[in-house]
Model the fold of this input.
Amino acid sequence: MPEAAAPAFIARPDGWQILKRNRAALIALGFLAALSLVAIVVPMLLPEALKLTSSESLAPPSNAHLLGTDVNGQDMLYRLLSGARVSLGVGLVSALISLGIGTLYGMISGYAGGRVDGVMMRTVEVLQSVPRILFIMILIAALDEYMKEWIDGWRLAAQEKNWKGLAEDISALKAYSKVLLMIVSLGLVEWLTMARIVRGQVLVLREMTFVTASRAMGQSPWGVLRRHLLPNLSTIILTYLTLTIPAVILDESFLSFLGLGIEDPAASWGSLLKDGAQVINPLESKWWLLVFPALLMSAGLLALNFLGDGLRDAFDPKSGE
Done:
């Protein structure tokens, strides 16, 4: 049987050079890298006293608390960095879930073509007509108790085997049951756009000579998808991944603002904005509770969009037309 042809790559050879010349994208990448590093490392280095509730409720920014304290007396710097870690983590994991589903779905639809492609795309259109926020809210409300019972079951199983450390870690997950459901829910609704983009690229690539040659040499459809089409889709997938993350973070923040996401003592940008909005009044404004989370969230989303636009300009062939 003849050997399979080596994978061929169709991409803009000057893509990385174009990205390097995009100052806004490079600054955005540096900011996101620094923000991620600070959000992971700094909370572990802060004194334990700043991580606990105290009597200094709603204290304004000072030398003791650089960004002030919240209604429970917790340091806002610690809460803000912890919220950044949660929001960015939810955005990244949910976007990766949507990327996996959307890429696989779009590749199969585009490569199959014909009636299969028509049915799969009509399904996508039907799903896009469903209000995604409403779907997520219903899913979280319906499955939250089941998720907590499932976590309790795992905790009891760990206790029966005298795995005390693991049982404590599993018990801590109970406060994040809505977060876990939110991650899965967001991943299940954000893949639709990715599927349409990937399907459009596959429709073009499947007519290329190297794909036709692979078919003639007896390579299976899955082999063609994995060895030839997927490598040529990698930069497009990466580009639209960076544009999906801010959309997911916005959805998470909106749900947390409504009280359907992160629960105390955990925090996210949305829950911090909710806490800040609750104490704002015309007589005495606790401005630091709203300004600092809003600024950091806006800067993070802006950086993600700048980076996504830069990647799209560099690697999406249609963007230069």
